[in-house]
Known about the structure:
The protein is mainly beta. It is built from one helix and twelve strands. The strands form four sheets. A four-stranded antiparallel β-sheet has the order 5-4-1-12, with no helix packed on it. The chain is globular, with a radius of gyration of 18 Å.
Amino acid sequence: MSTLQKDVSPPPLTMGPLDLGPYVIRHLAGSNYVLDVFQNNAASGTQVIGYSRNSPNTSNQQWKFVAAGPENPGWWYLQTQMSTNFVITLEPNMTIEPRPLVMMPKDPLQTDHQLWCLQSTEKLGYWYIQSKYRASNSQSPMVIGLTGGESGASAVAGAISFIEFEKQAWGFVPMLPLG
Length: 179
């Protein structure tokens, strides 16, 4: 480089908080079920289930991806559009698998139980929703699925399955904000 040329770097990219959504999170496995906060219940610890999509749309079936911040790049909270702003959480103090999913306030001490990322499936437009809990190369990742094919089946996180991926695959339908 000559002395007349300057090393000109572009200014650093800056952006505000990255909130994505709201979305309806739709199950692939031959159903019309979406992730739903059971009975639109605003209490902490309320179960997440698979349920038929409501019409008109309701906030207990709408979700936002909220960035976890620079200490957890690539990980997201799945936050309800309900007024509680609770996030999907692996049931605390539970060791059985698959583990139930419940709604809880964000807790900086529970990020392994509250953070999620997306992993592609073999079906275009559908994703595994992977928990940060057990996210390592030495253990099988835990992803969201349903306990059965009926309406009201519990949403759970269990070991990823590449053979029956349809049971753990989810699509995202963009929604206009409620208002």
